[in-house]
TrEMBL record:
GO terms for molecular function: DNA binding; DNA polymerase processivity factor activity. One of its GO terms (biological process) is leading strand elongation. Residues 128-256 form the Proliferating cell nuclear antigen PCNA C-terminal domain. CDD domains: PCNA. This protein is an auxiliary protein of DNA polymerase delta and is involved in the control of eukaryotic DNA replication by increasing the polymerase's processivity during elongation of the leading strand. It is found in: Nucleus. This is DNA sliding clamp PCNA. The keyword Translocase does not apply. It comes from Panagrolaimus davidi. PANTHER family: PROLIFERATING CELL NUCLEAR ANTIGEN.
Length: 264
């Protein structure tokens, strides 16, 4: 038996909306401590890592570890049937191992709705993510991150992030023009109200697909802040915390390779 109850369906709606365009089918690994998801996109360029800790839930029961393979489009359809303030209960029972149930009820408990979704057989392979010390860590407003990605995407399909001691630059250049956004923010990472804060151990410049960054920015509704961790030649980590420390949604994106540099 597995059952997890969220106070508001809107939390799960935001999570699924932030992942479903990147990953079609995903295994939700449920244990006594958390629900975790780890999956690559079809192009094997980006990795999604989700953790929902037990304290995020109003009630949580997991008698044994179970992996729930779900089509995220179908999950999204189920969640659209719920009002944002509805209580959301995710349920899997041993006597029906082919399905998972999404149950919703309003705050007044005058209406209950149950939607059953077929489970899929998905290989649940945990890709070991090594601990990495990053050259630069940037924390910024999630809304500002989303706007910057949208602004850069008007002119190019790539965004270059340059982090130096004096500031952080997001830039892009295409056939019709270019856009450069520069932040001379607070270097004090403790200032949570600042538009952007950063800690630069060494200068770093990397280029990424703006298409993927726009997908990541869809998670902005989950958290007021986003953290970007950068080092030369390794994937950037774009992290949104869920309910402070009750979970996280992390995206890993490989940098674009400079083909001209390789030819040299």
């Amino acid at each position: 038996m597995f059952e997890a109850q969220l106070e508001k369906a809107s939390t799960l709606k935001k999570i699924i909306d932030a992942v479903k365009d990147l990953v079609t089918d995903a295994p939700f690994d449920c244990s006594e401590n958390a629900i975790c998801l780890q999956a690559m996109d079809a192009s094997h360029v980006a990795l999604v890592s989700l953790k929902l800790s037990i304290d995020l839930f109003e009630a949580y029961r997991c008698d044994r570890t179970v992996s729930l393979g779900l089509n995220l489009t179908n999950v999204s359809k189920a969640l659209k049937c719920a009002n944002n303030d509805d209580v959301c209960i995710l349920r899997f029972t041993d006597h029906d191992q082919d399905n998972v149930t999404f149950a919703f009820h309003d705050v007044a408990k005058t209406k209950t709705q149950e939607i059953t979704i077929k489970l899929m057989d998905i290989d649940s392979e945990q890709l070991g993510i090594p601990d990495q010390k990053y050259a630069a860590t940037i924390e910024m407003s999630s809304a500002e991150f989303a706007k910057t990605c949208r602004d850069i995407s008007q002119f190019t399909d790539s965004v270059t992030i340059a982090a130096v001691k004096g500031g952080v630059t997001f830039s892009g250049k295409g056939d019709t023009g270019s856009n450069v956004v520069t932040y001379n923010g607070e270097t004090d990472a403790e200032n949570s109200d600042a538009l952007i804060t950063f800690e630069i151990n060494e200068n770093v410049t990397s280029t990424f697909s703006i298409k993927y960054m726009l997908m990541f920015a869809k998670a902005s509704g989950l958290s007021d802040r986003v953290r970007l961790s950068l080092s030369e030649g390794v994937p950037v980590v774009v992290e949104f915390k869920i309910n402070e420390d009750s979970g996280f949604l992390r995206y890993y994106l490989a940098p674009k390779i400079d083909e001209d540099a390789d030819m040299d």
